[in-house]
Amino acid sequence: MASEKAKPAENRPVYQIERLSKVYARNRFQALKDVDLTLRKGEFGAVIGSSGCGKSTLLKIMAGLMPPTSGRVMLEDKPVMGPRRDIGMMFQQATLLPWKTTLGNVLLPIEMRDGKAAARAARDRARELLELVGIGRAENVYPGELSGGMAQRAAICRMLITDPAVLLLDEPFSALDELTRDFMNMELQRICLERHATAFLVTHSIPEAVILADTIYIMDANPGRIVETIHIDLPRPRSLDMINTAKFGEIVHHIREKLGREMYGS
Amino acid sequence: MTDQTASSDAGSGQTDTVWTEREPFIDRIPRWVAMTGLFILIVGIWYTATALEVVSNIILPGPKETWDDILFVGQNMLDGGYMLEALITTTKTVLLAFLLAMAIGFSLGVLVGETKFGERAVMPYLVAIDTMPKVAFAPLFIAWLGFGISSKVALATFIATFPIVVSTAAGLYAATENERMLFKSIGASRLQTLIRLKLPTGLPYFFTGLKIAAVGVMAGAITGEFLGGGQGVGALIRVSASQLDTPRVFSLIIYLSFLGLALFLSVVWVQKTFVFWNKSDKPGGMA
Question: Domain spanning B73-276: which CATH class is it, in words?
Answer without folding.
Answer: mainly alpha
